[in-house]
Amino acid sequence: MSGPESISIPLTLALVAIALVYVRGWSRRRGTSTHARYKRGLGVFLSGMLVLWIALASPLATADHARLTFHMLQHLLLMTIAAPLILLAQPVAVLRQGLPDRFVDHLLTPVLRRLRRIGEVLTHPVSCWIAGTAVVIAWHIPPVFELGLHSHFWHSLQHGSFLAGGLLFWWPVIQPWPAIPKWPRWSMPLYLFFATLPCDALSAFLAFCGRVIYSSHGAAAHASYAARLTDQELAGALMWAWVTFAYVIPAVVITIQLLYREVPSGARAEPVELARC
Prior knowledge:
mainly alpha; 13 helices; globular
């Protein structure tokens, strides 16, 4: 597969167009909504778009064929940074309002109504967990990995599936509009914890198997076997550390929020009164 340009102009323009639609929707919604998350959503969404650009259209995107570590970093950015940032910005509601009214009324809304049942299945926590996990595991199977390495089409599909898998995975955790909670909130820390297990297994295999798994990776033509093995071990270590923090920190935050809600307001004030005594 030939190396891509240092900066992808078409993808950059596409991301800018999406950002402009969001800005239009945000500006229209700002005057009608007083909820704080909509007011800060612009910065969050633009941050997500920036991470997408870094992962897919910046010079970093050209390095994933040279080093497995950069390849891993690219996919981690898509799944654990860009995807949750986009969902935190309430993209469905704001982008919908940023599109032309005729397009929304006559095309988008009827299509979404027809796809409602499919959407309910796809956004169920079980489906979301399987999607996020399957994407990670499937694309690291050596023959599948080779497809993305030697074909522009499969490489683009790989990137798209990582982003889509990330959006689905974080959907029940963040619950942006129009999400309807299907599981109790206390199940989300368990959802996140169990998601770390297959990633830990994959990262441990890459780090400790003692042999190069992807022998035809771009680095193979430019580096020694020892250098390629070191690169693979670094990629496995990066995945293990990154996923652990990316999944465990939200689980801890959700747990603290749940515990705080369970404590009566009087009980929370009691330590202050004792301190005054």
